[in-house]
Amino acid sequence: MRRINQITGADSFRDAWMLQVKELIEATVGREATDDELEKASSMYGEFIEDAPTIRVINTATGGAPKTGTLDQALDRILSQQYIFSGNGTLFKREDHGGENVTGSFVETLLSTRKAVKGQMKTAMRAGDKSTADTMDTRQKVYKVLTNA
Prior knowledge:
mainly alpha, 2 domains, two-stranded antiparallel ribbon, disordered N terminus
């Protein structure tokens, strides 16, 4: 999700949404948005966002208890915390806001596993066990390819 508040200076998701609607009208129609168009956009926001049913948010990372709130509250929190919104609807906390770099952790795991497998390969080579050394060599190459993919 784009960091709307840094781009637009908006303090709430509603304000950011209205600015985006205004810019969209200006870009597509080639003129400033009319008061009537902005009023309709505001009304739509109220109808679909503020009046939306209560939602439940479950933090799967910490196993915390589900929290309930409105969609408007959730969107404001996403904006203020600058969460990363993935295509499948999962939210991730940014590292500078206490989140974990999931991709970096995954790559670190692959690299440390490759290093361990290479150690096993070298041990097998020193012991003269060519079969095990070849197997470990193939495994470490798989981890190398996965890391670089």
